[in-house]
Amino acid sequence: MIISMEKIRVFLWRLLKGNMIHFRYMKTRNIRSSFINIMDSNKTVDYIISNNCSVARFGDGEFQMISHGIDGGNEQDFPVDSFQPFNKELSSRLRDVLTCDCTNLLVCIPYAMIKSDVYKGYNRVFFEREWLGREKFMTGVLKKNAIFGDSLFSRFYLNRTDIKNVSGYIDNLKRIWHGKDIVIVEGNLSRLGIGNDLFDNAKSIRRILCPAKNAFGSYNGILRYIQDTFKYESPLFLLALGHTATVLAYDLAQQGFHAIDIGHVDIEYEWFMMGAKEKVAVRDKYVNEVKEGREVSGTFHDPDYLSQIIAKID
Description:
- This protein is an alpha/beta fold.
- It has one domain.
- The protein is built from eleven helices and eight strands.
- It has helices spanning 5-26, 29-33, 41-51, 60-70, 88-98, 121-141, 166-173, 219-229, 243-254, 265-274, 303-308, and strands at 54-57, 105-109, 149-150, 181-187, 204-210, 236-240, 258-261, 309-312.
- Helix 1 (5-26) crosses helix 6 (121-141).
- The chain is globular and about 55 Å long.
């Protein structure tokens, strides 16, 4: 069996630094326990269904974007290799969403930062390190009396320890869009639900395709198209646009639309269906977190997919 250099690097990193990070993380137990209003993934899905609310999610990428803006950084010194370069306006908007007080919008942050044992292996250490690096930011920015969901509710399979019945969890997750007219706002290489049955229980599916990279550069066009096209409709918008989806969910909720930042739900479902043990490329779908997954052809001839596209926004 050939072991990749990346796997060796991760193993050595965990061996040398993982235990130290875990020790420091455990010493912050009292501070973490003060965040009592962060729901786990199961409770988050139930909350979304019961309250029929919109959802904006924050992860390490969004926190990095906010922190870089607070520190006065610019695009040139942004240390993250990502599909979204640093944008000062985006950084500011993300902070506004994170601290908003909206009754129809559930803001989500990673529950794993507060209770890392919902993950195992490198993922657990990753979120422990995230907490240690973001502790002052989290305690200084988040409202202690606000209710937060788990931004990882759409990452229900890979390396999770707390979701024992993945099939049952998926069935419950599907209740969010069951019998609804949905509009998927996604990157033009994402192709959510194509090749699987994830959205088969929706009443109808339409798609708005946006740039796979730097979607925020087209933000005004995306928002304007939705506003103009759906004046007299009330579909459920499922957003998969990275950082941009977080802001878009907020803006749409403010205007009375129902929008859920659903993130990597389709890729996680694909990994579950193939029984993957680690993050891998998925054929014909853009997977930013895997180097090989970023090499996706723009040519795609699936007839169902093509019939669902109502707009392409560059």
